[in-house]
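Proteins fold reproducibly. Take a sample protein:
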Amino acid sequence: MAAFEVTAHRSAAILGRTLRALIASTLLGCATGASDPDSQAGGREGQRTLLAKTTPNAAAAAAPPPGGDPASGNLPPTDGETRPGRLLIYSAITGHVPLEERNINDPDPRSMSPTEREAARSRQIELEIQEELAKQESITGTESASTPPDTPILAPSFDPVAEPLAAPPAPTLRKLPTKLFESREVTIPPGQWQNAHELRVMRRSLDVDRDGKPEEVRYIDADSGLILRSELDRDFDGTLDAWITYENGTPAIQVLDENGDGTRDTWERYRDGSLLAKTTDSDADGVKDVFYRYDGTELVQKLSDQNNDAAIDRIETFAGRHRKSIEEDRSMSGQMDTWTTYRVIDGREVITQIERDSRDRGTPNIVEIYETQGDSTRLARKEEDLDGDGNVDIVSTYEDGRLLQRAISDEALSPL
């Protein structure tokens, strides 16, 4: 990583006063330069000395180019890297040097006298400095409006897990005397239960209140005596709301109507009595949109389709019954753009890092690192890759959630 030019956030006001002093000094030098070359060179050297104490890299940029000192009248070509005055002041303000090409309508500097060149150059510098100061004040005002200086940047609000992190137990059959059931032999045609062949079963129904609507129905294989299927009215409202399919006498699939609207909205798959996966239609619109994965007795992953476009846009990962990470497509562009990492401190989950893709390219270019002290989790460091080349361009350091300093990569000092 390139070296960094550190600009203290808290010295912004001092820097502004220094820049204005430099402008005044530059203008004064321009006014007297034609009549007193020695005084002009001395003033320029004083500017470098002052900048060396505040922004060393900017002062280095102001060193006379190999082609000679501008005061001598032998000016090199007017490209961005050979204009030390502009580099000096832009570096001091922003840490980089966005230079513009000379207007084609401007007079050719080679046709000017030394005095005219210095006057034109001073006017251009003053204009650029005023524009940059206005831009910086606008940015500062926007940042101050969104985050008051006395308000620390805290971690985003914690999003609690709505579902239990422990896998629910497999459904069990109540032990009831056979004489309580009404029994009769029936035939299940192929395909009714996704069965390939016709089934001969014993149907046992339990209607406790004798209203003609059984609270439970069991289907027993006539040959093996093993249960194949059961149907339940769990809330005793007269409507069946749970359907369980068995394999070798143990639950394999359970389908539920959780909200009692008469439509199935939850599907659970079991193996050897343990829940493997669960799918739900969380908003009851007829589309499956939340998918759970379990390992043993614990939830390990939750996947969500939050806009019903048949694409997963949020993945939560769990371990040891605690959330470990979240991947999200917050822009709903079809690819993940936010990655949040958690760790457990004193038995509770806290955010440690958030990576963001602000350009919708599928890879993060902003990294935020958080630290936890007591009950508060605050931003401690932020790294930004502005040009997408894989290298960090800006590093911001925070203390107690407040900006302490900002470091800009030296590569950003080159002309744009």
Q: What stands out?
A: The first strand starts at residue 4 and ends at 8. The CA atoms of residues 68 and 74 lie 7 Å apart. The mean pLDDT is 76. The longest helix spans residues 114-146.
